């Protein structure tokens, strides 16, 4: 009900009393305003309350959601579109034809929670019966000394797992594990390397590479976005197996301590096979030798093809000859001084077994007969600076770039100073050491018409470009000389009908730790390129301390040891790679293409 | 008019609620199905990788070499040799077809040969 501002009764009364009626009006106005103010205030307060509640609700919803997200276990989105899944597995490794070299298998790890174990003593005894490497007393002590968690075994076979299940103790638990498996056993062990467990948890464990390709390309293999695509190597499984078989046979027959072989495609730089003996099983990688007196080569883990830095001997002579031809100092038929022995300062340079091929020899014959003195004279014509530059361009001054973790560590041993006597000794492969891999890359440059290609263990698609280190003409002349070594020279046992093997032998005395050289310990190398008319592959075979005892006296030259092994390898392996022999089989009634 | 509108919208609300309820359960069922399928895919994939590993293990070169040696009597497998490459010239031409006999031939007075002479 609305109260009038000037109620007539009160106004009349006021007038009668002689008061000002306006005060009544003002009083009423004031009361009316107060009512209005109270109403508005109540409404505003209600609005504020609603707004406040809304804000609180909104923020607590957001907060609760955030808390929930932070506290819950992550789950895969269930309604995701197929195709773009992430595979949290280490990628497989395959050979160049897609045959499996390394893959993963699911297995289990065994651990114990002694707090809930019913019968620790009995469990310890039963576990010791299952796993022969464990002792019951040890296990029992670990179960009873108050710890709440004990790792027992990193991987179990399904049979062992079943046996552990049969113990039936609630304190024994299994954690899923992914295990790296190398189905081919020792095959290409030095290339693959091996893996071990990194950070370990109950639900999973990290698999990390510890050597070889597994370590060098660890990031690529562990990349979840590439987990589904296997890593394809340039290795050919069948060729690798054949080379390992033949190399092992050769090593055993020649009583060698170790052996290595590298087969490389000269055009692409792909390494088709890389073997080093003795070898190991990457599924059960042996521990490194900790004995300080032992040589690194004594461990089967040592990769002779990449880590074995040896003086490579006469195989280096072709580089001096090729460089001299490239510089125009000599031609293949130029006669050079080869009068042995040669006196240089206080050094005397001799030929093998004190022979003398001189007084003059053509450059081709220097290579064919493997004359130290002739090579020394060629090297002196070139000079130290140019010789160093050339060897550098062939990659002999730095570690090889192959994708093995061992490769960067295997730096060649180069003399600090380079006086002329070093020029002389280096020209026939002494005084400076490099790995067979360096030699393979350099010979591949000669075989590839003078273009140096980086060696790789990964399959390459398409043509590869490289750096030209010599002209095509020089490279062809060098291959022709190497062919001469096999047809008329020191590597006559290396002839394989149809495959025109060209190569150079190298016999280097092993250096003693105390200085000087051993009389009866050698490293024999045969570096070959085949077929000579159109070189496609380079094969390096190195034998460590071989002795050929088939003759009346022991022979230690590469021509009798590494060369026959290499020849057998080429004879067996070339057809596998689809290389046709130049010698056609006799065909009685062949049809000859003719036109008129 | 108004009450009709109210009733209609109320009915629509009930219908929509029913539809949303059904969709919700259908979605959950589909998700469950997808999860089961994905589990199945994962299991199959694992089985596949085990079988691939097994295949690689059974086909490892040393085993094949041993098997070839053991079964040499039956299979006679030898390593590949350079001399085994052939030339196109070694492939024989297809044998010419026997010409069609279309000339009339007199067979009167002839006797069929006994079976044993054929």
Descriptive report:
The complex is a heterodimer of chains A (596) and B (118). With 596 residues, chain A is of the alpha+beta class. Chain A has 17 helices and 20 strands. In chain A, strand 19 and strand 20 (537-544) form a beta hairpin. The N and C termini of chain A lie far apart (131 Å). The mean pLDDT of chain A is 86. Chain B is mainly alpha-helical. Chain B starts with a helix and ends in a 43-residue tail after the last helix. Chains A and B meet through strand 2, helix 9 and helix 17 of A and helix 1 and helix 2 of B.
Give the arrangement of secondary structure elements.
The complex is a heterodimer of chains A (596) and B (118).
Chain A: H1 8-17, H2 21-71, E1 93-94, E2 100-112, H3 120-130, H4 136-144, E3 150-156, H5 158-167, E4 172-181, H6 189-192, E5 194-200, E6 205-211, H7 212-216, H8 218-222, E7 231-232, H9 237-253, E8 258-265, E9 271-277, E10 310-311, H10 317-326, E11 335-337, E12 342-344, E13 347-349, E14 360-362, H11 363-369, H12 372-382, H13 384-393, H14 420-427, E15 433-434, H15 436-447, E16 451-452, E17 467-468, H16 472-488, E18 502-511, E19 517-530, E20 537-544, H17 562-576
Parallel strand pairs in A: 1-7
Antiparallel strand pairs in A: 1-2, 2-3, 2-4, 5-6, 8-9, 8-20, 10-15, 11-14, 12-13, 16-17, 18-19, 19-20
Chain B: H1 2-58, H2 61-70, H3 72-75
């Amino acid at each position: 009900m609305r109260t009038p501002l000037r109620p007539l009764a009160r106004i009349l009364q006021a007038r009668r009393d002689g008061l000002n009626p306006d005060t009544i009006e003002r009083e009423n106005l004031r009361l009316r305003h107060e009512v209005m103010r109270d109403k508005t205030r109540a409404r505003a307060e209600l609005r504020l309350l609603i707004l406040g509640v809304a804000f609180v609700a909104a923020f607590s919803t957001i907060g609760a959601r955030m808390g929930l997200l932070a506290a819950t276990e992550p789950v895969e989105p269930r309604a995701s579109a197929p195709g773009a899944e992430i595979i949290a597995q280490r990628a497989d490794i395959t050979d160049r034809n897609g045959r499996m070299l390394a893959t993963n298998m699911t297995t289990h790890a065994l651990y114990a929670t002694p707090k809930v174990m019913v019968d620790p003593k009995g469990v310890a005894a039963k576990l010791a019966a299952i796993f022969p490497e464990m002792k019951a007393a040890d296990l029992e002590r670990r179960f009873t000394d108050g710890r709440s968690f004990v790792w027992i075994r990193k991987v179990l076979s399904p049979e062992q797992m079943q046996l552990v299940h049969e113990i039936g103790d609630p304190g024994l638990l299994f954690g899923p594990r992914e295990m790296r498996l190398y189905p081919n056993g020792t095959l290409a062990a030095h290339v693959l390397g091996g893996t071990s467990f990194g950070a370990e948890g109950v639900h999973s464990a990290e698999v990390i590479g510890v050597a070889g390709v597994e370590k060098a390309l660890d990031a690529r293999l562990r990349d979840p976005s590439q987990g589904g695509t296997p890593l394809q190597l340039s290795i050919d499984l069948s060729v690798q197996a054949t080379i390992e078989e033949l190399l092992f046979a050769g090593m055993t027959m020649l009583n060698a301590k170790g052996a290595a072989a590298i087969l490389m495609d000269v055009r692409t730089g792909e390494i088709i096979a890389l073997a080093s003996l003795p070898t190991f099983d990457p599924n059960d990688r042996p521990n490194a030798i900790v004995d300080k007196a032992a040589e690194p080569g004594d461990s089967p883990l040592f990769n002779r093809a990449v880590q074995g830095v040896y003086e490579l001997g006469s195989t280096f002579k072709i580089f001096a000859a090729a460089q001299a031809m490239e510089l125009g100092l000599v031609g293949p038929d130029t006669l050079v001084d080869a009068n042995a022995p040669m006196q240089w300062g206080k050094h005397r340079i001799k030929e093998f077994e004190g022979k003398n091929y001189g007084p003059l020899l053509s450059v081709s014959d220097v290579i064919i007969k493997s004359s130290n003195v002739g090579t020394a004279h060629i090297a002196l014509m070139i000079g130290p600076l140019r010789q160093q530059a050339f060897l550098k361009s062939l990659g002999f001054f730095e570690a090889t770039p192959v994708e093995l973790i061992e490769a960067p560590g295997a730096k060649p041993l180069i003399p600090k100073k380079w006086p002329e006597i070093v020029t002389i000794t280096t020209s026939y492969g002494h005084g400076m050491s490099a790995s067979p891999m360096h030699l393979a890359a350099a010979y591949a440059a000669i075989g590839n018409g003078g273009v140096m290609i980086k060696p790789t263990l990964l399959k390459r698609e398409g043509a590869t470009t490289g750096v030209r280190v010599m002209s095509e003409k020089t490279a062809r002349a060098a291959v022709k000389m190497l062919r001469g070594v096999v047809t008329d020279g020191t590597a006559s046992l290396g002839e394989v009908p149809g495959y025109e093997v060209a190569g150079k032998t190298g016999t280097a005395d092993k250096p003693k730790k105390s200085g000087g050289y051993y009389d009866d310990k050698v490293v024999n190398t045969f570096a070959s390129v085949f077929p000579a008319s159109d070189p496609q592959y380079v094969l390096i075979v190195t034998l460590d301390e071989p002795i050929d005892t088939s003759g009346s006296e022991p022979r230690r030259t590469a021509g009798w040891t590494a060369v026959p092994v290499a020849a057998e390898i080429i004879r067996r392996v070339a057809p596998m790679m689809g290389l046709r022999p130049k010698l056609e089989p006799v065909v009685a009634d062949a049809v000859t293409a003719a036109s008129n | 008019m108004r009450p009709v509108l109210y009733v209609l919208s109320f009915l629509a609300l009930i219908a929509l609620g029913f539809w949303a309820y059904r969709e919700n359960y259908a979605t959950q069922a589909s998700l469950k199905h997808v999860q089961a399928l994905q589990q199945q895919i994962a299991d199959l994939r694992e089985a596949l990788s085990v079988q691939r590993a097994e295949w690689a293990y059974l086909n490892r070169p040393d085993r094949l070499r041993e098997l070839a040696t053991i079964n040499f009597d039956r299979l006679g497998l030898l390593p590949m040799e350079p001399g085994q490459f052939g030339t196109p010239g070694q492939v024989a031409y297809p044998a010419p077809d026997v010409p069609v006999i279309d000339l009339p031939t007199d067979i009167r007075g002839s006797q069929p040969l006994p079976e044993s002479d054929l």
